[in-house]
Amino acid sequence: MRLILRSIGLVLAGACVSVAQAAGGACTPINSEEALKAEDARYAAQMGDDYAAMDKLFSPDLVYIHTSSVLDNKTSYIESMRSGAVKYKVMRRSEVTVRTFGCVAIINGIGNYDVRVKDNDVNVILRFTSIWQKKDNALEFISWQSTRMP
Asked: Could you give the 3-state DSSP secondary structure of residue 79?
């Protein structure tokens, strides 16, 4: 099973590198420290309602798949927070691993988030995959997928 998941990750990373190169931006190697720093900046922006920072960090091609299976793009995801429908109050992560493939970093871990969704406070514990790419020396958040833990 691990081999299958690793193979899928390598195929996905290769596809991300190809997309980055095809988009015309210079693919610059990324390291684990940069990826985690970018993920920290994203968490801070979301908890602090810093929409300008989110706009800068999130790729125009962002694909964000929630544990509920709801699919967001950059615009709809930021709007969910701007409208007040979703408010990330506390975002914590643990058991993090970072793998880098050229200009792409894949972060896996466990997230523990206190979130207000449509006036209901919830604590969400999930496994996640967060993908970042480095293009023209800037990091972009390009994809998120999570699964709720029992």
From this structure: helix
CA distance 90 to 47: 7
- Which stretches of the chain score pLDDT less than 50? 4-8, 10-13, 15-23
80-91: pLDDT as tens digits: 999 999 999 999
Alpha carbons 95 and 58: distance in angstroms, whole number: 24
- By CB atoms closer than 10 A (0-12, 13-18, 19+), residue 104 is buried
| 105/29 Cα distance (integer angstroms) | 9
Q: Where are the alpha helices (DSSP H) in the chain?
A: 2-22, 32-47, 51-57, 74-82
